[in-house]
Amino acid sequence: MPELNIEAVSGLISACEQAEQGVAEGAGDGRLTGGRLGDLYGRRRMFLLGLAGFTLTSALCGLAWSPLALIVFRVLQGLLGWIRG
Fold first, then answer.
1. Within 10 Å of residue 19's Cβ, how many Cβ atoms?
2. Residue 72: pLDDT above 80?
3. How many whole angstroms separate alpha carbon 60 and alpha carbon 15?
């Protein structure tokens, strides 16, 4: 029966928790800025920019080569989420 490396599993769980926290912080920090950018440059333009960026960062999350890359892409995804929404 194969043995489970508890340290590796706990490291992966920690990386996933940090990625989710990055999305929440990125989305929460930019609400006012996103609204202001929508006022300045147009809501439709900012929505489309955010949607394209969110889609790109979603693809990058799927292709992430390390936990650190995943965390960075999830933070960017959160930041672009507030521009979109």
1. 22
2. yes
3. 16
How many residues belong to the chain?
Answer: 85
Give the whole-angstrom CA distance, residue 41 versus residue 49: 11
Q: What is the pLDDT of residues 10-44, one digit of tens each?
A: 665 666 676 666 666 655 666 667 778 888 888 88
Cα angle, residue 18 at apex, residues 74 and 82 outer, rounded to 5°: 35
Single out the residue of 3, 80, 79, 84 nearest to residue 48, CA to CA.
Answer: 84
Average pLDDT value over all residues in the chain: 76
d(CA 60, CA 29): 22
Q: Which residues contact 15 (CB under 8 A, 6 or more apart)?
A: 67, 68, 70, 71
